[in-house]
Design goal:
Strand 6 (about 150-155), helix 7 and strand 7 (about 180-185) form a beta-alpha-beta unit. The longest helix has 17 residues, at about 365-380. This protein has helices spanning about 25-30, 40-50, 65-75, 90-100, 115-125, 130-145, 160-175, 190-205, 225-235, 255-265, 265-270, 280-290, 310-320, 345-355, 365-380, 385-395, 440-450, 495-510; strands spanning about 15, 20, 55-60, 80-85, 105-115, 150-155, 180-185, 210-215, 235-240, 270, 340, 385, 400-410, 420-425, 430-435, 455-465, 475-480, 485-490. It is globular, with a radius of gyration of 24 Å. It has about 525 residues and is of the alpha/beta class. The strands form 5 sheets. An 8-stranded parallel barrel has the order 2-3-4-5-6-7-8-9, surrounded by 7 helices. It is built from 18 helices and 18 strands. About 40% of the residues lie in helices and about 20% in strands. The protein has 3 domains: about 15-290, Aldolase class I (TIM Barrel), CATH 3.20.20; about 305-335, no CATH class; about 400-510, Alpha-isopropylmalate synthase LeuA, regulatory domain (Double Stranded RNA Binding Domain, 2-Layer Sandwich). The chain binds manganese (II) ion. Manganese (II) ion binds near residues 182 and 247. Manganese (II) ion binds near residues 217, 247, 251 and 520.
Length: about 525
């Protein structure tokens, strides 16, 4: 197949290694409804390490004490990937990164300042000369503590290219080791990005001694295309997030970039260090931790990404998968046969299965999961991998001010829907009754009354995790209060109980206040 297509790399030339800089825990996490707590971030970071990313941007150490702790914890827990923290050019920001990460196995600082006329004038209220000075000072300061310093001119794609050349040349001279070009507002196009990257590589003195990187947003749906254009022009690092989460329309999607390079390796002649069989699991884990589901037609990891609906396609795939399949579901870690356990399965079989799914749980946690598993296996005939994943991840997402204990509802055609809910609020058990327009409404009203919340429900979505009427219900809920937003997810064979769990998770997330953040 490849023989009929243009090859970009020279025949026989070794493929170029592209490094993957994952910013799921920084750019991704600061997007609406995606906040994670420390424990959730650590679990995700460990999965990113298994996935094989080269760098993890763990947060923005100076933005809040919670972010600082998280960066510190991830930096010291991981031995594989380089861990970095974002910083504005203020020296206090750089010092916060250093303080959080020093002593880590492999770490660095990522500093940024806006470079576009719009941002310099209205956001920073700084003259271009002062921006260059601040950038140089920040990079030089960071280099005193680490030899891995990345610099990003924010809003680069709307900046004056001549000014960018000057700014980048100065930070390279000051010791920056990675120069990242962000399309902060998702404005550029592939050819334009290619031209900008080419110009910087050609005109910046010392460009061959540093790594150029790219960071694209998806406002026009071009993040992956623009990133590929940048690496075709000579960038060697690409910044991205799992499921493409991030500010507004999100960042370039890690799984799409990696599979584009892998599936079309003969064209690009580039490789990454990603273990692609971990892609699907990484996507599922992030969805479970944040409650932010991917759309069914999302490339690579969406529910329909490998589903062939048209009869002629199904027929072709059965005769030879290559007819309509450019990559296999197995290559991204989607298993075709996921039927595994039942009510007679023991603790050992469950522990084996959890490990096979890529989770690492301790004894106490296994006890909790096994208890839940038995309860679930009594209710359902078969327990699928997806069910087990949901049980494992419930524990991770469980921590919060409000804890679910139990509930019952009464509903039907001739009664006022009524709910009894028992919650633990800051350690105190509270039980209350309430009513509503339907059973879910009655439960939500009662939870709000107990928790003392005045939030409004903005999204309520039900999915079945697996097929059949005995499938577990997976409910996603988004709530808002005072322009803060919280997303939560709950699973249970009983859809009303799943709704209650999701609502409480959203409420707990909503209550996590955070300082206003910015970034590239
Ligand atoms: Mn960004």
């Amino acid at each position: 197949m490849e023989t009929i297509m243009a090859k970009q790399g020279q025949p026989g030339q070794a493929p170029t290694r592209i490094t993957i800089f994952d910013t799921t825990l920084r750019d991704g996490e600061q997007s609406p409804g995606c906040t994670m707590n420390r424990e959730e971030k650590l679990v995700m970071a460990q999965q990113l390490a298994r996935l094989g990313v080269d760098t993890i941007e763990a947060g923005f150490a100076a933005s809040s004490p919670g972010d600082f702790e998280s960066v510190h914890e991830i930096g010291h827990a991981l031995k594989g990937p380089r861990v970095v923290s974002l910083a504005r050019t203020g020296l206090a920001d750089i010092d916060a990164c250093v303080e959080a990460l020093k002593g880590s196995h492999h770490w660095g600082v990522h500093t940024f300042i806006a470079a576009s006329p719009l941002h310099m004038k209205y956001k920073l209220q700084m003259e271009p000369d002062d921006v260059v000075h601040a950038a140089v000072q920040a990079v030089a300061h960071a280099r005193r503590f680490t030899d891995s310093v990345e610099f990003s001119p924010e809003d680069a794609t709307r900046s004056d290219p001549a000014f960018l050349v000057r700014l980048v040349a100065e930070v390279v001279r000051a010791g920056a080791t990675i120069v990242n070009i962000p399309d902060t507002v998702g404005y550029t196009t592939p050819r334009e990005m290619h031209a900008l990257m080419t110009r910087l590589l050609n005109e910046v003195p010392g460009a061959d001694g540093v790594v150029f990187s790219v960071h694209c947003h998806n406002d026009l749906g071009l993040a992956v295309a623009n990133s590929l254009a940048a690496i075709e022009a000579g960038a060697r690092q690409v910044e991205c997030t799992v499921n493409g989460i991030g500010e507004r329309a999100g960042n370039a999607s890690l799984e799409e970039l990696v599979m584009a390079l892998k599936t079309r390796q003969a064209f690009f002649n580039m490789v990454t260090g990603i273990r692609t069989e971990e892609l699907y699991h990484s996507s599922r884990l992030l969805t479970q931790l944040t409650g932010m589901a991917v759309q069914a037609n999302k490339a690579i990891v969406g529910a329909n990404a490998f589903a062939h609906e048209a009869g002629i396609h199904q027929d072709g795939v059965l005769k030879n998968p290559l007819t309509y399949e450019i990559m296999t579901p197995e290559s991204v870690g989607i298993k075709s046969n996921s039927l595994v356990l039942g009510k007679h399965s023991g603790r050992h079989a469950l522990a084996d299965r959890i490990r096979a799914l890529g989770y690492d749980v301790g004894g106490v946690e296994l006890n909790r999961i096994f208890k839940e598993f038995k309860r679930l296996a009594d209710l359902k005939k078969t327990v699928f991998d997806e069910d087990i994943e949901a049980l494992v991840n419930q524990g991770v997402a469980g921590a919060g001010r409000v804890v679910f204990r139990g509930m019952s509802v009464q509903s039907g055609t001739d009664v006022t829907p009524k709910a009894t809910v028992e919650l633990e609020v800051e350690g105190e058990v509270v039980r209350r009754e309430g009513t509503g327009d339907g059973p879910v409404d009655a439960v939500f009203n009662t939870i709000k009354a107990i928790a003392g919340s005045h939030c409004t429900l903005t999204l309520y979505k039900v999915n079945a995790i697996t097929g059949g009427t005995d499938a577990q219900g997976e409910v996603s809920v988004t709530v808002e209060e005072h322009s803060r937003r919280g997303t939560g997810r709950g699973t249970d064979p009983d859809i009303i109980v799943a709704s209650a769990k999701a609502f409480i998770a959203a409420l707990n997330r909503l209550e996590r206040k955070r300082a206003p953040v910015e970034g590239v």
